[in-house]
């Protein structure tokens, strides 16, 4: 309450938006993976189909989570009436086009029709259009937060890059998950997992740079502290660092069998969702300092261990 | 046509919360919603410590962050330069909360009671819930509108009328002879968070 009065922590966007950002990113990532694999040759065709198959339903379900968060769902169509005013308006158009293209791709290539199976040129053309809007969807989830100028933790160039790499990595993990569930050991799937190791290492580098930069900047320092040592540190260290990055990285590097690939993919997908939640919840505005006075929330006195559970989590 | 603004004299304000109460009484805001609020701050080190109150409300910026991010154009500056919300076209995406550097917006899902749970709702609260729904509605962001209804009668906003220290002065920034233009020019008026570049129309006069 006191943080809200001081205009510090954003409390409006929570799990619903985190799930939306995650599903939109992972779905578009899986679709992009599928399209790129389809370009790589006929031996990848089955795995490519699994990637493309995940695209439409995940993004659609993610969009439903966004609609559930709206205060006035009956007005939702108005977002499309003023394109170019805001990243939500632009993102709505990007996601709508992506949904249409990926739906056509899904219906005419995989189920129930398979007319695009032999029409390589047409399928690749559709794939290129879908690729552009799929990458747009992945980057848009970062730009949406990055456009909130008053929240310095979000408005950095690294956030769209971080969300893009995380979306591609979780998309590949979804593809690996589907492939490993469907067929036995395949060298192609292990090759995909090795590429995912590269993405996870990139994610570590970008995430470190993102948090380091946020920690160095006085205006976003309290957000970074909340993530690294504060109320969100459990989510960050256990969820993002351990489950989302380290465990999949080690499993993909050591084991090469189907069961462990499924485990790694599940951990990685959960980590991607928690990453979105941590970034959302850590969004905070710098304190209102004016005329030499510091208008910060009064810090609560340190309570004994037994009573520490009474302190509301996430209180900056 | 005017360009309404406000000056808050921090030298006069002694943090009595009268503006907060006047705003709540006039606008029937539910518990936890403060269109006008007061922050208390400190400066200095132990024997020489000063406390200062900082009243905050919607700054009705010239280049508002909330208008920039609104996907439907539901929030806009009206002809008097006052930032208002058209609740008929608002989708309730809450993006404007992320665009406002002053935390001036409050989302209201339902009208919660001021009294502990289990007690009957008082007739006054029923009236307030109806009045609030008519004016602002639920599921959309709500915020200060410089008391649009009071201004239509030619009165100043209720927080200005209630201030016992006369620390709040309301007026037209376009009029060079108005009291607030004079005060901003002669007493080094400043705005909050100028680095965000929203050009607020609520000015503060330094406390010393």
Give structural notes.
The complex is a heterodimer of chains A (316) and B (208). Chain A has helices spanning 2-5, 15-39, 45-69, 87-109, 120-146, 158-182, 187-216, 221-228, 233-254, 258-281; strands at 288-290, 293-295. Chain A is mostly helical and 316 residues long. In chain A, strands 1-2 form a two-stranded antiparallel ribbon. In chain A, a hairpin with a 2-residue loop joins β1 and β2. In chain A, α4 (87-109) runs antiparallel to α5. The longest helix of chain A has 30 residues, at 187-216. The termini of chain A are close together. Chain B has one domain (4-193): Alpha-Beta Plaits (2-Layer Sandwich), CATH 3.30.70. Helices cover 25% and strands 19% of the residues of chain B. Chain B contains 7 helices and 9 strands. Chain B has helices at 18-27, 65-69, 95-99, 123-135, 148-152, 158-162, 179-186, and strands spanning 4-9, 37-43, 50-56, 75-77, 83-85, 106-107, 141-142, 168-172, 202-205. Chain B is globular, with a radius of gyration of 18 Å. In chain B, 46% of the residues are buried. Classes of the chains: A mainly alpha (316), B alpha+beta (208). The interface between A and B is large, with 46 and 51 residues.
Q: What is the overall shape of chain A? A: globular
Give the structural class of chain A.
mainly alpha
The CATH homologous superfamily of chain A: Formate dehydrogenase/DMSO reductase domain
Name the CATH architecture of chain B: 2-Layer Sandwich
**Would you tell me the structural class of the helices and strands of chain B?**
alpha+beta
The run of helices and strands of chain B is EHEEHEEHEHEHHEHE
Beta-strand residue percentage of chain A: under 5%
Q: How many E-type strands of chain A? A: 2
What kind of assembly state do the chains in view correspond to? heterodimer
In angstroms, what is the radius of gyration of chain B?
18 Å
Shape of chain B: globular
Number of helices of chain B: 7
Find the CATH topology of chain A.
Formate dehydrogenase/DMSO reductase fold
Helix content of chain B: 10-25%
User: What would you say the CATH architecture of chain A is?
Assistant: Up-down Bundle
Widest β-sheet, arrangement of strands of chain B: 8-1-9
């Amino acid at each position: 309450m006191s943080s809200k009065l001081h205009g510090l922590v954003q409390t409006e966007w929570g799990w619903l938006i985190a799930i939306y950002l995650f599903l939109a990113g992972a779905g578009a990532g899986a679709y992009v993976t599928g399209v790129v694999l389809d370009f790589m040759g006929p031996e990848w065709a089955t795995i490519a189909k699994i990637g493309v198959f995940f695209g439409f339903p995940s993004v659609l379900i993610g969009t439903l989570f966004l609609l559930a968060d709206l205060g006035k769902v009956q007005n939702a169509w108005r977002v499309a009436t003023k394109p170019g005013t805001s990243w939500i308006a632009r993102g709505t158009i990007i996601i709508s086009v992506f949904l249409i293209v990926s739906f056509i791709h899904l219906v005419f290539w995989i189920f129930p029709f398979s007319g695009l199976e032999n029409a390589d040129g047409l399928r690749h053309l559709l794939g290129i259009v879908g690729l552009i809007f799929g990458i747009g969807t992945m980057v848009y989830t970062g730009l949406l937060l990055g456009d909130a100028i008053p929240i310095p933790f979000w408005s950095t160039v690294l956030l769209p890059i971080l969300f893009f790499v995380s979306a591609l990595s979780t998309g590949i993990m979804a593809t690996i998950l589907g492939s490993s569930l469907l067929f036995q050991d395949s060298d192609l799937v292990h090759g995909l997992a090795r590429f995912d190791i590269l993405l996870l290492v990139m994610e570590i580098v970008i995430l470190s740079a993102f948090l380091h930069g946020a920690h160095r900047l006085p205006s976003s320092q309290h957000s970074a502290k909340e993530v690294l040592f504060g109320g969100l540190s459990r989510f960050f260290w256990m969820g993002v660092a351990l489950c989302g990055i380290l465990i999949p990285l080690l499993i993909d590097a050591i084991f090469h069998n189907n069961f462990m690939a499924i485990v790694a993919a599940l951990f990685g997908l959960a980590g991607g969702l928690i990453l979105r939640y941590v970034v959302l919840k850590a969004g905070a505005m710098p304190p209102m300092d004016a005329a030499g006075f510091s208008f910060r929330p009064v810090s609560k006195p340190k309570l004994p261990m037994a009573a520490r559970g009474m302190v509301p989590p996430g209180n900056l | 046509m005017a360009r309404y603004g406000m000056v808050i004299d921090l030298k006069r304000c002694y943090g009595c919360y009268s503006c907060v109460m006047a705003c709540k009484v006039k606008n029937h805001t539910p518990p936890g919603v403060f269109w006008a609020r007061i922050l208390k701050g400190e400066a200095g080190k132990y024997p020489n410590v000063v406390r200062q109150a900082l009243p905050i409300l919607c700054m009705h910026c010239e280049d508002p962050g909330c208008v920039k991010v609104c996907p439907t154009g539901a929030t806009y500056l009206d002809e008097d330069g006052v930032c208002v919300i058209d609740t008929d076209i608002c989708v309730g995406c809450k993006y404007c909360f992320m665009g406002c550097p002053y935390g001036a917006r409050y989302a209201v899902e339902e009208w919660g009671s001021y009294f502990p749970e289990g007690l009957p709702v008082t007739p006054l609260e029923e009236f307030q819930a109806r009045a609030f729904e008519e004016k602002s509605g639920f599921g959309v962001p709500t915020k200060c509108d410089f008391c649009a209804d009071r201004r239509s009668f030619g009165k100043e906003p209720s927080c200005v009328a209630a201030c016992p220290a006369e620390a709040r002065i309301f007026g037209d920034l376009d009029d060079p002879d108005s009291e607030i233009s004079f005060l901003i020019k002669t007493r080094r008026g400043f705005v909050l968070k100028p680095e965000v570049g929203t050009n607020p129309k609520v000015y503060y006069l330094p406390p010393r």
